[in-house]
Amino acid sequence: MPVEAAVAPRLEISGLSAGYFGQPVVRDLNLRVAPGEVVALLGANGAGKTTTLSTVAGLLDPIAGEVAMDGASIAGRPTHRLAREGLSLVPESRALFNSLTVREHLVLARSGEGDLPQDLIVEMLPELEKCMNRKAGVLSGGEQQMLAVGRALVGRPRLLLVDEMSLGLAPIIVERLLPILRRVATELETGVLFVEQHVPLALQVADRAYVLSHGRLVAEGAAAEMSEQQDLLRSSYLGDEAADAVKGSPAEGRAREQHNGGDKSDAS
Ligand SMILES: Nc1ncnc2c1ncn2[C@@H]1O[C@H](COP(=O)(O)OP(=O)(O)OP(=O)(O)O)[C@@H](O)[C@H]1O
Ligand SMILES: [Mg+2]
């Protein structure tokens, strides 16, 4: 592998504007994810997180700007081609087939020789083992999410995009799920970009984080530093009327709990 390919970011977004029907909802976004790095994309509802992931994954064409994976432009490339090239998206909806079993999902996701062996996927997501012959439609929300992640790992992604893995799940399940992203990044050298509403938990797992507000980047930095700067985070993350909407939510509650020295659960 040429040296420059080895050091290029897994994902580099430069000056990206993205949106719908030519109207940008994300403006002038610059963001990088290195190989083996776990990066959180944070922001209030409607900030443009899903729009960003959808554009990187080829579901939306960028309005302006550049998106590159391992130094090669991928802007506007179709999703199925990006998937073959090592980009995996776990969408918010999970996009599972209710009538297919866990095993069938994992088999259908196979792409060839470089695939991750099923044993390793089950080792990372042991909850899947007992569900192998169960249809996705009867799994619990947490099990469905594990399957969605497991399926995304089959092709040994170089870049993994995860949109609100924890939507509708109890914090205890989120604490179980998020560290899997860290393991994937470390063991597969995958670059991971994930969207997460449980901000304190996200910052415990991430190396770095970016915060979007109304489609613009308003904060970025090392996750550990951001965790320390709760005020900055709160004002950039909540900023406006969203603050009222989010106050008292599980994310905010946990932020307060941990700020006050609440126990960290053993999430590994
Ligand atoms: N298909 C669409 N057509 C037009 N506008 C859209 C579409 N999808 C999203 N939007 C708008 O784009 C903006 C950003 O939405 P997006 O879904 O990216 O936000 P988000 O940060 O993922 O929010 P959430 O936390 O609620 O998932 C919002 O104003 C939303 O209404
Ligand atoms: Mg979203």
Written account of the structure:
- Helices cover 38% and strands 23% of the residues.
- The chain is an alpha/beta fold.
- The chain has two domains: 3-86 and 158-259, Rossmann fold, CATH 3.40.50; 93-156, no CATH class.
- The chain has a six-stranded mixed β-sheet with strand order 6-7-8-3-9-10, sandwiched between helices. It has a four-stranded antiparallel β-sheet with strand order 2-1-4-5, with helices on one face.
- Residues 241-268 have low confidence and may be disordered.
- The protein binds adenosine-5'-triphosphate and magnesium ion.
- Residues 49-50, 92, 163 line the site of magnesium ion.
What features would you highlight for this structure?
268 residues; alpha/beta; Rossmann fold; 2 domains; six-stranded mixed β-sheet; four-stranded antiparallel β-sheet; 12 helices; 10 strands; globular; disordered C terminus; binds adenosine-5'-triphosphate; binds magnesium ion
User: Which segments are poorly predicted (pLDDT under 50) over 5 or more consecutive residues?
Assistant: 241-268
The average pLDDT score comes to 84
What's the total count of β strands? 10
Into which percentage range does the β-strand content fall?
15-25%
Give helix and strand order, one letter per element, not per position.
Answer: HEEEHEEHEHHHEHEHEEHHHH
Helix content: 25-40%
Please describe the biggest sheet, giving its number of strands, its sense, and whether it closes into a barrel.
6 strands, mixed
